[in-house]
Design brief:
Number of strands: 12
Helix content: 25-40%
Distance between the termini: 83 Å
Largest sheet: 4 strands, antiparallel
Radius of gyration: 27 Å
Number of helices: 6
Shape: elongated
CATH superfamily of the largest domain: Reverse transcriptase/Diguanylate cyclase domain
Amino acid sequence: MDPASGVLGEKAFHDLLTREVSRATRYQDFFSVCLVRLDGTEHEPDESLQQAVARKISQFLRTTDVVARLRDGIAILLIDTPDADAARVSERLRAQIESVSFQSGRSGPARRVTLSMGLVSFPRDGQNETALLARAQSRLEAAVERGGNVEGAQAGTIAEAGGVKIVGYLNVPGRLAASASTLYAKNLLTFVETLIDKKEKKLAVNWDDELVKATLLTRDGAVVHPNFQPKAA
């Protein structure tokens, strides 16, 4: 037991997880594991804040569930909880934590926190402790990379958790240029199509159309857009 936070320590959690894998394998049962990291604390961890969040998480869960402190975050073991139920629990837990103000340090101001999570379920995501924790860590890192507060994300793909699709694309900024260009091109094409008579295959501008009025600059040699007309001397 971690005396500062009142939850399990890392070694005790690993021992318990190993036993739970053996129990679930023997009785063909299921459980879920969720790795949790406080957003914005990757490089400057606040130990007292981590302890307070771990204590609060344990208060929001069932007495049969287990919370533990790890070196780089928090782990949750959801006993007898399949993947769909675990996804709902983690989303509810995230919202509950976001509604709480935590003291930052001994004398710092109260602050709100958000959580990134990596959720896995036995036996779907792995049939031993090593496989489960590796996949949970991968999903947690994917969530952190995209700015945090994303549970169930899987790096480089579109995952589904509890009927919800979670986009896990890597290098999102690198995708924006192509996506923005495609959207702009579609908008231009849609606009130009309104100026064409498709049956006659020729220009047929409706000068009374609101969109045409808003974008028309000149007509018949004169400036017609009010924002570009010459100012009176």
